[in-house]
Amino acid sequence: MKKSSSLAMAMGWVFSISVAGSAYAQTVEIGTWGGFHKAAVSFTFDDGAPSHVTDVAPLFDKYGYKATFNLVTKWNPNWSGFQDMADNGHEIASHSDNHGDPMPDDEIASSKGTINTQIKNNECITLAYPNCKTPNKATVLQNYIAGRICGNGQEVMGKNGPSNWAEVPAIMTGVELQYNINFNSLDQFAGKMQDASQKGGWVMFLTHGLAGKSNNGNATFSPTDLSVIDGALDWASKNDMWVESFRSVTMYIKERNASTATASTSGGSITVKLTHNIADNISNYDYPLSIRVQNSNNWTSVSGTQGGKSIETTIKDGYIYFDAVPNGGDIVISSGGSSTNPTSSSAIGPTSSNSSTGVSAEYKIEMEKYDEGGQGLTYNDIDGKSGNTGYRTDDAGVVKAGDDGYGIGYTMAGEWYNYSLNVTCQGEYSVVAMAATGNASTSRFSVSVENVSGSVAIDVPSTPEDWDAYAEVEGKGTLNLASGKNVIKVNFDESNINVDWIKFKSDNAQCPEVIPVAKNLRLNSLSGPVQYQVFDMNGHLLKSGTVSAQGGVQTLWNAASRGLSKGTYVLRYGNGSSTGSVQVRK
Q1: CA atoms within 13 A on the CB side of 456
Q2: Distance of CA 315 to the CA centre of its chain
Q3: Residue 376 and residue 566: Cα distance in Å, rounded?
Q4: Closest listed residue to residue 173, CA positions, set 157, 190, 198, 160
């Protein structure tokens, strides 16, 4: 194992410390990047454009990725919209008060204070300089953990980030030819991410408004094509990139480089101590680091706690993986219990723990976030009426819902909306909606899944003349959701119904084990002829067959993956005595 560990360090994948323990020594490794990915990439968006709320955030949510949005506080940003994004895990950061040229030094602290007052559940601890001109660097680092500049010829950083945290470089995207900016193709994005991957480093992108959008507000400089950003995120998802905010990557690097990890094994448990000595008045530096220890005892299931609180664990490739917070208390990994499998963070996904037959899972659709595409393609808005909220440019019935949220209203019989829902755990789901109607009698709308027969009817009780008396209403029946992308259609059978959100709930969903790369498949060996099926992430059967799999699932996947293009799939297999399901990537 020493040779393997040394190779990993040479490739920049892990930071490894081996120490003596009370019973016997154990090797604990801190991932160079979250999830032990190859490299890190951050997407930052300047000026607080309305299009960032309506178009950019939903795109990142689709992939389960987090981005950074830098606000100019005096440009009247959509505070409610950015609050929703912060609640969903995105970073809301400073871009000054007035976008001065240069930024006045007194706005370094004042812009941060305004954002911290306006946006809850958010730590404003990074700054993006207007016009790429650096203010007083000492004052910056008294208020922020990092400040972002524009590219300086060293845009792709190494694993330890920049030489000066007040000058973190980023690549400006879009097209602004008078300033020699022409970075607006998938090949350009992919090329920079590939450079980062090869050096195990970090690359950051700087984007303003979106090409062809009329709701960019003040973010009109160097517009970037949203479809190119979509392509870049898809490339990142298929090439083992860790896509996280400027804040999260900065904290991870600083914590990783300052942390000491020790581990010892005694009896049926491994105890890990993870600490750092970073101390300032800016942050607690409590971002979780990705950790692995050798599974020397070949445990088949484990459970974990830190400071007495449960943490997720998984067994893979001869290691036990988990995320833990430095200075968060002792981490104890015990034999037995129920291991879970790591997935990318997302606003929607499994919310409860494993059971013996499946998992409790829940997915949520915010009605105002219907798919892009336009009238007749992704929605049918008959009367064109809305609450004039300004939430979207294609404002197809968006209304205020609750104190600070949005929903769909002014509905007419025959109107419908489509929503792309990414599902990790397939199964049979009940449907619950937060809805209201001021009609004189109960009114109905229905929910269905594209290419799946059946629908669930939801009858909304009447609250005469009050279209804001929202209540949770359970639908009649269930829907089958497949792993991967599901297109949900909400059809209004009757008029005058307001809907805030829809939830899908299951107590027995099936979650395939997530294996990032097919070559890492190491499961219980199979013997004899094995039947298999390969599905895409939309649940469509692509191929099936029977093979000899005496070498285990790896041999099976080698045969089953022939002829498939690069991508993510679900592989199901079994021979009567043993069955299994894994999510694999080619």
Answers
A1: 26
A2: 22
A3: 32
A4: 190
Which tokens go with 43? Answer: 């997407």
Length of the chain: 586
Neighbouring C-alpha atoms within 13 Å toward the C-beta of 42: 32
User: Residue 291's closest CA among 258, 263, 329, 249?
Assistant: 263
Q: pTM (2 decimals)?
A: 0.59
One DSSP character per residue, 94-114 reads E--SS--SS--TTHHHHHHHH
Tell me whether strands 471-481 and 541-548 are parallel, antiparallel or unpaired. Answer: unpaired
> Going by C-beta distance under 8 Å and a sequence separation of 6 or more, which residues neighbour residue 127?
70, 93, 94, 95, 108, 111, 112, 140, 143, 144, 146, 147, 148
Structural domains of the chain ordered from first start = 2-36+252-339 (2.60.220), 39-239 (3.20.20.370), 360-509 (2.60.120.260), 513-585 (2.60.40)
The model's pLDDT over 47-84, given as tens digits with 9 standing for 90+, comes to 999 999 999 999 999 888 999 999 999 999 999 999 99
| Residue 221: HSE in the Cβ half-sphere, 13 Å Cα cutoff | 16
DSSP secondary-structure letter at 244? -
Contacts of 420 (CB under 8 A, 6+ apart): 62, 371, 485, 486, 487, 488
Q: Which long-range contacts (CB under 8 A, 24 or more apart) does 320-323 make?
A: 320/270, 320/292, 320/293, 320/294, 320/295, 321/36, 321/290, 321/291, 321/292, 322/290, 322/291, 322/292, 323/34, 323/288, 323/289, 323/290, 323/291
pLDDT in tens, 246-296: 999 999 999 999 999 999 887 678 999 999 999 899 999 999 999 999 888
Tokens of 264: 């010892």
Closest among 461, 458, 457 to 441, alpha carbons compared: 461
Amino acid at 102: P
